[in-house]
Amino acid sequence: MSDPLIMVAAVPASAVFMAGMVGVGAIAGVLSIFDAEERERELNPREDGPFTDYWPNGKKRAVGSYKNKKLNGLYRTYYRNGEKKSEVTYEGGERNGPYTSWHENGRKFVEGVFKDGKQHGPIRSYDEDGRVSYIKSAMVSQTVPGTGRGAE
Questions:
Q1: Residue 101's pLDDT is what?
Q2: In the chain, what are the domain boundaries?
Q3: Are 128 and 114 in contact (CB under 8 A)?
Q4: What's the whole-model pTM score?
Q5: In angstroms, what CA-CA distances link 4 with 18, 75, 124?
Q6: Rounded Cα–Cα distance for residues 29 and 150 (Å)
Q7: DSSP labels, the chain
């Protein structure tokens, strides 16, 4: 049995995805879920203190805490079957620290680190058997002067 192929990319995520790298699609999907949840929370802020949301079947959906009407501390989400889905730490409403998501079978799916609300360092994606399927380096986002567009 050979070792799994590990790739490091320094190209736009869209280009890698178009080339057939499923890992990038998985990573982008997980990050877009985090972003969508943040937008929903901003539109519907909660009172300060701990909270637990539940699925209609009675199992936990999300557990976290608010401080000054912003997420603060460890935030966990769960699949409908009760298995842990994701875990990320917030400070003052921004993702800050390690984050991990899991496949529905309980094996790790994606892991990385946020600093001040932005990806910091590499992101690793795993297949459903727990093998590393993709590693993405952190890319610095820059605007090209005079164009208003990002450098790729």
A1: 93
A2: 8-139
A3: no
A4: 0.63
A5: 21, 32, 13
A6: 21
A7: -PPPP--EE-S-HHHHHHTT-HHHHHHHHHHHHHHHHHHHHHHS---SEEEEEE-TTSSEEEEEEEETTEE-EEEEEE-TTS-EEEEEEEETTEEEEEEEEE-TTSSEEEEEEEETTEE-S-EEEE-TTS-EEEEE------EETTTTEE--
Question: What is the per-residue pLDDT across 36-87, written as a single tens digit (0 to 9) for each?
Answer: 666 666 666 678 999 999 999 999 999 999 999 889 999 999 999 999 999 9
Residues 6+ apart with CB under 8 A from 68: 48, 92
Regarding predicted confidence, which is higher, 132 or 61? 61
Q: Which residues contact 112 (CB under 8 A, 6 or more apart)?
A: 98, 99, 119, 120, 121, 122, 123, 124
Separation between Cα atoms, residue 134 and residue 53, nearest integer Å: 32
Both tokens of 69, joined, read 């009407």
Spatial CB neighbours of 139, under 8 Å, sequence gap ≥ 6: 10
Task: Determine how β-strand 149-150 pairs with β-strand 143-144.
Answer: antiparallel
**Closest to 9 in 3D by CA, of 141, 139, 151:** 139
